[in-house]
Design a protein that fits this description.
Layout lengths: L2 E4 L4 E4 L4 E5 L13 H9 L7 E7 L7 E7 L4 E7 L10
Antiparallel strand pairs: 1-2, 3-4, 4-5, 5-6
Bound molecules: zinc ion (ZN).
Zinc ion binds next to loops.
Length: 94
């Protein structure tokens, strides 16, 4: 069973307690009305799909219910690191 470390609960817990919540570190445009249709489409729908390390948002749905970030290797499905929301991606995890 895949275990995920919740940085708030500070425990390794079964994947079933968590929900994937998309790509991490996306910045919402300050004024979407200034964007072209293509720029707005890209913000809403275009996401990275790397082979290797990927920064993701996760939520500890059946625990503390908080969102956090993780870097996961999409090839091996191993979590490299998890860290609290609002903090920067750790160096060396690109
Ligand atoms: Zn938690």
């Amino acid at each position: 069973m895949l275990l995920i470390h919740c940085p708030y609960c500070d425990q390794d817990l079964p994947e079933l307690e968590f929900t994937y919540a998309g790509e991490a570190h996306l910045t919402r445009p300050s004024d979407p009305s200034l964007l072209t249709d293509e720029e707005w489409r890209d913000f809403l729908f275009i996401r990275k799909n790397p082979k290797g390390n990927h920064a993701e948002r996760w939520r500890h749905t059946h625990g503390c219910a908080r969102f956090f970030n993780a870097v996961r290797d999409t090839v091996s499905d191993r979590f490299i690191v998890t860290y609290k929301a609002g903090t920067s991606r750790p160096e060396g995890t690109e």
